[in-house]
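INFO  loader      accepted 1 record
INFO  loader      residues=123
INFO  predictor   begin
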Amino acid sequence: QAPLVESGGGLVQAGGSLRLSCTASSGTISEYRMAWFRQAPGKEREFVAAIWRDGYTTVYADSMKGRFTISRDNAKNTVYLQMNSLKPEDTAVYSCAAGLKLGSVAPQFFDYWGQGTQVTVSS
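INFO  predictor   done
INFO  writer      dumping tokens
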């Protein structure tokens, strides 16, 4: 079980960009489908994006399409989330996850989780 550690969060103005990273400090991520989720105050955890082992197959939540891009570098055991055109409503704790099961991007289909990194977007 590879521990997952997120980084890259912080405070940014609306319209700005951030790149989040999720790194496995031990083990590898090459066998796993990787995803990002987020949770804002008072709201349920929601799916953001996922990327499959091939590095090309991706899935995005509708509100993220055209603004967010997920990518992976298996050699570095790292998954990225490039976030552009950020909005105040994007403010949340962003967590990465790893899983093996197919068929859904629901949280229960992912086995390992990071602690999350805070993203705050000011108006």
